[in-house]
């Protein structure tokens, strides 16, 4: 599903640029295509241009340059109300002066759908989000989670093929958010709708999406399925932004056979997988996930390089242990070890050796 | 969900009812809050509530007639106002004493003006009577003084009325006359008089003593003269003549002036009785006019509906409440016009303010600040200047007419009349009240987030539909607040209609101002004001019922 040819792309951005003031580009050369039925998340820090992209797709902003296509048709000049895209807003945007049923009925009314038809659709949509009994209430009488469901139902009631969601779960508490993540993905897959979902919450992005587009500085830094994004980040921004990550700086000493040798700044040597470094002598940031760091160096191959480390802090977190180490002159190196029966609990002050499989450590560009 | 079987009051930890212990805990807080708002509360009470209460009271208050003519009014109770005959001689006699005292205190013109509101001509009747009242009983007084010079001597009178030293005094009469004068003059008549009538003479000559005591109190307090050095009023002498002619038995009297009294009684026996009725009619024929007497009787009670009836173009007649003659009906027209024009002004304010407020709320900060200054600028300009500016703009030789003539849209001889009529008032007041509409609208609109309209458009609504179905309903509270503000301000507006309204564009408030400052008919002004207040309250209530006052947001 990830690699789709442009021919059957449902939503397409072609060389799209956006500037508000004529001086700075908020979106720089955006290219994106997604097939029908995909759940794509735009993830990025605030100001990265992800919401602007969503608004351009919805029609509330116009692209300064480039073309946006929906189902093969350019939609740059189509006003929002003719695009037929469902949208869920950050603050739900339920009309406060209408009841829940009237809110849901609104998109059907403006489409001139008959009364009996409308009632049926509204009822089905409410049942779909398990809010069947709430039709007569006002939005203000509902809890945040309930409002969220209604907003979702309203975006779906007129059966759009594409639904945009702009940080829809941002205002909910953690537990409710996790529950709603699950419901939204289920619903999207059941109905077979295409979803573009904007969030700055990486967990949300990883758990819900078919593919994630990581935005920074107006560009897509990486567009990949969640596992690929996490395990093989293309650059150090993605590595830093997704999940927990340890970085060490150094210089490339050797590159051969997909493995490179990096000399860290304190002179120690370690193996890594070259991702976007090409020349010996280049500066690099190597990136390693805390759970891939091996404390028991005996498990690694004989030729594997290891590093000296000193335990600074040991944090018991129930299912895992989190240990902060001092490695190569940096005090913020984190490792995570599973709380299994044979796992040793490290003590602060202890001198240990750490290492990792070269494929788990990625030599990336310097930030 | 949970069914509570315990229906008794909830108790606090120490066993007292929870409600009571909550009240106790909150009492200190409430007291402190009350102390904090006390200055404002007192200010509002003194400057707002009290004047309104006073206005409401004045609109029905009518004590002037009964205070000025208490005795005459009392005798009128027996007179059947619907019959054709004038009131009896007793009424005229009582009127004589009342009128005399009122003329001395110079209060007769006031009651005349008051009654003139109800029946024109009464004012001059009272004025003339005040001047001529001393002539009544002239012949008899001359005859009395011919019998003995002492009846013109102040010391003799004083001695006779005071009685010998140490004699019992009729203090009841003294305090009654003090009170009577206090009511008449609306001021205090407490203080040292240097006189008290003896009980003996009071029993013998009741009318004389009452009249002399009134004279004494008035002389000592109002004129600040010594009673014994002032010759009594004609009214006192008339009272004496009446007392003597009533056939009293003087044989048992041995106090001061006993001899002179007997002499006078004999001497006056063959004099004709004083004809008060004729006396008054001689002063002015109006006293023979039955309508005047009916009016006096009708407005004798201390409270009256007269002002309110007048304010709604009705009048009280012996046949009941009746509409006034067509040519005297003005207030109904004025009330209707005020209402109509206030609605017009409110309506045009809504139409003009809505787009401005919308822009203010939706433009970028820099532009909207500039626009806000333009909105507020007229606010900082004097009301008179703004109104006068409209005069310059709208008059027939004014800017607008000149421009229209220059453009050839209007012939020079066909210049538009845009001022001194309703149009002028509506234009000028719309301009003046516009900020009161814009600001509440703006404050409501600026709380409507832009995502509602976006949501509506993403749901398939056109620009117009999303405005009308989504934005507009949410801005209604602002319209409501602005409308209430503008309407209530407009309905009581005074200066602008006065300047640009001419005759056809004036409001009821201009009439109220006229009655306050020119005709001095405060009662009618108060009644008109009360009706206006009631109208506003009713409209407010109706608004609450229809729209709901929760839907009004001022900020």
Notes on the structure:
- The complex is a heterodimer of chains A (367) and B (555).
- Chain A folds into two domains: 6-236, P-loop containing nucleotide triphosphate hydrolases (Rossmann fold), CATH 3.40.50.300; 245-364, OB fold (Dihydrolipoamide Acetyltransferase, E2P) (Beta Barrel).
- In chain A, 23% of the residues lie in helices and 34% in strands.
- Chain A contains eight helices and 19 strands.
- Chain A has helices at 50-58, 100-109, 115-128, 144-157, 174-191, 202-208, 226-231, 236-241, and strands at residues 9-19, 25-35, 39-43, 65-70, 73-74, 85-88, 162-166, 194-199, 211-216, 219-224, 246-256, 259-264, 269-274, 283-288, 307-316, 320-327, 330-338, 351-354, 361-364.
- In chain A, the strands form four sheets. A six-stranded mixed beta sheet of chain A has the order 6-7-8-3-9-10, sandwiched between helices. A five-stranded mixed β-barrel of chain A has the order 11-12-13-19-14.
- In chain A, strand 15 (307-316) and strand 16 (320-327) form a beta hairpin.
- In chain A, helix 2 crosses helix 3 and helix 2 (100-109) packs parallel to helix 4.
- The longest helix of chain A is centred in the middle third of the chain and has 18 residues, at 174-191.
- Chain A starts with 8 loop residues before the first strand and ends with a strand.
- The relative contact order of chain A is 0.12.
- Chain B has 555 residues and is mainly α.
- Helix content of chain B is 65%, strand content 1%.
- Chain B has 26 helices and two strands.
- Chain B has helices spanning 18-58, 63-68, 70-76, 89-104, 108-116, 122-132, 138-147, 154-162, 171-185, 199-204, 206-222, 234-245, 258-268, 276-283, 290-298, 306-311, 331-362, 365-376, 383-394, 399-407, 422-445, 451-458, 463-491, 495-500, 508-517, 522-546, and strands at 314-317, 320-323.
- In chain B, strands 1-2 form a two-stranded antiparallel sheet.
- In chain B, strand 1 and strand 2 (320-323) form a beta hairpin.
- Chain A binds chain B through residues 58-60, 79-82, 84-87, 89-91, 93, 95-97, 106-107, 110-111, 154-155, 158, 164, and chain B through 449, 451-452, 454-463, 465-466, 469-470, 473-474.
- Chain B: Its main location: membrane.
- Chain B: It is found in: Cell membrane.
- Chain B: The chain crosses the membrane at residues 33-53, 339-361, 367-385, 423-442, 476-495, 520-543.
């Amino acid at each position: 599903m990830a690699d789709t040819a442009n021919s059957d792309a449902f939503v397409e951005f072609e060389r799209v640029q956006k500037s508000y003031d004529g001086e700075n580009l908020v979106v720089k050369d955006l290219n994106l295509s997604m097939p029908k039925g995909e759940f794509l998340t735009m993830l990025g820090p605030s100001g990265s241009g992800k919401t602007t992209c969503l608004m351009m797709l919805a029609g509330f902003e116009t692209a300064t340059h480039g073309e946006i296509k929906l189902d093969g048709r350019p939609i740059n000049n189509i006003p929002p109300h003719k695009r037929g895209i469902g949208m869920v807003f950050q603050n739900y945007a339920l009309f406060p002066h209408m009841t829940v049923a009237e809110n849901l009925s609104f998109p059907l009314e403006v489409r001139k759908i008959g009364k009996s038809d409308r009632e049926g659709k509204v009822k089905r949509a409410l049942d779909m989000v398990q809010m069947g009994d709430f039709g007569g209430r006002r939005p203000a009488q509902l809890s945040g989670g309930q409002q969220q469901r209604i907003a979702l139902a309203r975006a779906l009631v007129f059966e759009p093929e594409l639904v945009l969601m702009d940080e829809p779960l941002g205002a909910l508490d953690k537990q409710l958010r996790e529950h709603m993540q699950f419901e939204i993905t289920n619903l999207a897959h059941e109905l077979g709708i295409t979803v573009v979902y904007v969030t700055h919450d990486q967990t949300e992005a990883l758990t819900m999406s078919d593919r994630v587009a990581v935005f920074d500085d107006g560009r897509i830094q990486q567009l990949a399925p969640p596992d690929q994004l996490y395990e093989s980040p293309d650059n150090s921004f993605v590595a830093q932004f997704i999940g927990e990550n340890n970085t060490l700086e150094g210089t490339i000493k050797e590159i051969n056979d997909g493995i490179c040798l990096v000399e860290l700044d304190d002179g120690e040597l370690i193996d890594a997988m070259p991702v976007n470094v090409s020349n010996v002598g280049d500066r690099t940031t190597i990136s390693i996930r805390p759970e891939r760091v091996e404390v028991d160096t005996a498990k690694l191959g004989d030729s594997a390089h290891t590093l000296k480390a000193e335990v600074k802090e040991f944090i018991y977190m129930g299912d895992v242990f989190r240990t902060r180490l001092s490695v190569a002159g940096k005090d913020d190196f984190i490792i995570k070890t599973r709380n299994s029966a044979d796992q040793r609990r490290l003590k602060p002050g202890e001198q240990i050796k750490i290492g990792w499989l070269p494929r788990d450590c990625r030599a990336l560009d310097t930030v | 969900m949970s069914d509570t079987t315990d229906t008794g009051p909830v108790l606090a930890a120490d066993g007292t009812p929870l409600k009571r212990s909550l009240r106790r805990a909150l009492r200190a807080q409430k007291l402190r809050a009350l102390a904090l708002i006390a200055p404002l509360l007192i200010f509002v009470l003194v400057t707002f509530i009290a004047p309104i209460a006073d206005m409401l009271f004045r609109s029905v208050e009518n004590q002037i007639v009964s205070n000025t003519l208490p005795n005459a009014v009392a005798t009128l109770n027996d007179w059947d106002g619907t019959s054709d005959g004038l009131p009896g001689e007793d009424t005229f006699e009582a009127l004589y004493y009342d009128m005399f005292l009122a003329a001395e205190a110079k209060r007769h013109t006031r009651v005349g003006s008051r009654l003139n509101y109800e029946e024109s001509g009464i004012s001059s009747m009272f004025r003339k009577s005040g001047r001529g009242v001393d002539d009544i009983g002239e012949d008899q007084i001359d005859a009395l003084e011919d019998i003995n010079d002492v009846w013109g001597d102040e010391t003799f009178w004083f001695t006779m009325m005071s009685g010998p030293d140490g004699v019992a005094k009729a203090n009841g009469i003294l305090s009654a006359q003090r009170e009577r004068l206090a009511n008449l003059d609306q001021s205090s008549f407490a203080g040292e008089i240097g006189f008290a009538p003896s009980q003996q003479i009071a029993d013998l000559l009741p009318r004389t003593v009452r009249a002399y005591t009134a004279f004494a109190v008035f002389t000592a307090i109002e004129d600040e003269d010594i009673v014994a050095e002032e010759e009594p009023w004609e009214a006192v002498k008339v009272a004496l003549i009446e007392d003597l002619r009533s056939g009293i038995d003087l044989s048992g009297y041995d106090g001061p002036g006993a001899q002179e009294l007997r002499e006078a009684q004999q001497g006056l026996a063959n004099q004709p009785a004083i004809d008060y009725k004729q006396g008054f009619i001689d002063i002015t024929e109006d006293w023979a006019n039955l309508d005047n007497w009916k009016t006096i009787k009708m407005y004798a009670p201390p409270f009256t509906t007269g002002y309110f009836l007048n304010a709604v173009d009705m009048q009280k007649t012996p046949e009941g409440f009746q509409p006034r003659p067509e040519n005297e009906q003005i207030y109904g027209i004025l009330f209707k016009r005020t209402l109509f024009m206030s609605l017009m002004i409110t309506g045009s304010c809504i139409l003009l303010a809505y787009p401005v407020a919308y822009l203010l709320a939706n433009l970028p900060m820099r532009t909207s600040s500039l626009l806000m200054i333009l909105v507020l600028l007229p606010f900082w300009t004097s009301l008179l200047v703004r109104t006068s500016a409209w005069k310059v703009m709208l008059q027939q030789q004014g800017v607008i007419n000149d421009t229209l003539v220059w453009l050839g849209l209007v012939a020079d001889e066909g210049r538009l009349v845009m001022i001194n009529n309703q149009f002028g008032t509506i234009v000028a007041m719309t301009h003046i009240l516009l900020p009161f509409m814009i600001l509440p609208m703006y404050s409501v609109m600026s709380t409507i987030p832009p995502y509602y309209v976006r949501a509506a458009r993403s749901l398939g609504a056109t620009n117009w539909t999303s405005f009308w179905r989504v934005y507009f309903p949410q801005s209604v509270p602002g319209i409501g607040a602005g409308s209430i503000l503008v309407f209530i301000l407009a309905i009581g507006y005074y200066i602008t209609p006065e300047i640009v309204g001419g005759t056809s564009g004036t409001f009821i408030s201009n009439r109220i101002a006229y009655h306050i400052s020119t005709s001095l008919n405060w009662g009618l002004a108060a009644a008109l004001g009360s009706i206006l207040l009631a109208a506003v309250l009713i409209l407010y209530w109706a608004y609450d019922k229809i729209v709901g006052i929760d839907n009004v947001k001022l900020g």
